[in-house]
Amino acid sequence: MVKDLSRFARDYIEAGTYIDQIFPYMQVRFISVGDGCDRNKNEHGISSIDVPFKNMVYDYYSKDISQKMKASVKVRQECGDFFGSKAPCGYAKLKEDHHQLIVDETVRGFVEETYVLTNPIYTSTITGGKTRVQEVGSGIKKWVNSDERIVVDNKHEAIISKEDFGKVQEKLNSNTKHITRERKHVQILQDKIYCGHCHHKMSFTVYYGKKSGYYYSYRYKIKDCSCMKGKIAAEIL
């Protein structure tokens, strides 16, 4: 039972599959209160033409709302608004506006000595649009390339000067060893392998110095977790 069809699914194709095929096959009674749909009472079940049409409208409406929300967030990011759930160490959110940062004087001295070396936020630079949702309702986010992200300078008070930050980056880059790992072929099963115990997605890692890799469950270290502690070679799968 759902309030209306818009609460049941965001994808009209998937909604139609469940309503017209899966539910009848499993003898599940489906009721949509707001739309007056009841599989057991309607003369033709709930396969009348208005149901798939409503699903299409709800699907379009959801995607339209999603695009408008993304556009709204992008505009605010371009204005330098902070969208993190928590302020980074050394800052606090302004009570009147949680999208604005102010320096936390209680830990300022500590941050000046031990700040996150690669985070430009301490130089008053806000970086937004780091991730992007691949598809409406999927919950899957994809990292955005650094040159495509939204960067706004001088939005709040800096704790670290840009000169000092730049010197640190030069030092880090000079000490970094870039290792290129070439894969023999694309892992067609990546992001499709799940643990049979915890049902979480299994991680993929390439053997050091080799072109092959393996899948493993990172949750086996959790206490009382029954996940497999070993690994499965990608070639076997």
Structure explained in plain terms:
The protein has 237 residues and is α+β, with helices and mostly antiparallel strands. It folds into three domains: 5-70, no CATH class; 81-175, no CATH class; 179-237, no CATH class. Helix content is 28%, strand content 14%. It has five helices and eleven strands; from the N terminus they run ααββαββαββββαβββ. A three-stranded antiparallel β-sheet has the order 9-10-11, with no helix packed on it. It has a two-stranded antiparallel sheet with strand order 1-2. A hairpin with a 4-residue loop joins β1 and β2. α2 crosses α3. It starts with a helix and ends with a strand. Mean pLDDT is 76; it is low at 179-185.
Topology diagram in text:
Blueprint: H1 5-8, H2 12-25, E1 31-32, E2 37-38, H3 50-78, E3 91-93, E4 101-103, H4 108-113, E5 126-128, E6 131-133, E7 141-143, E8 150-152, H5 162-175, E9 203-206, E10 213-216, E11 231-233
Antiparallel strand pairs: 1-2, 3-4, 5-8, 6-7, 9-10, 10-11
Helix pairs in contact: 2-3
Could you describe the largest sheet, including whether it forms a barrel? 3 strands, antiparallel
The helix count comes to 5
**Strand segment count:** 11
Write the H/E string, N to C. Answer: HHEEHEEHEEEEHEEE
Neighbour order of strands in the largest sheet: 9-10-11
Distance between the termini: 40 Å
Structural domains: how many: 3
User: What Rg is obtained from the alpha carbons, in whole angstroms?
Assistant: 25 Å
Shape type: extended
Structural class, judged by helices and strands? alpha+beta
Q: Please report which band the strand proportion falls in: under 5%, 5-15%, 15-25%, 25-35%, 35-45% or over 45%.
A: 5-15%
Helix-residue proportion:
25-40%
Mean pLDDT over the residues: 76
Uncertain segments = 179-185
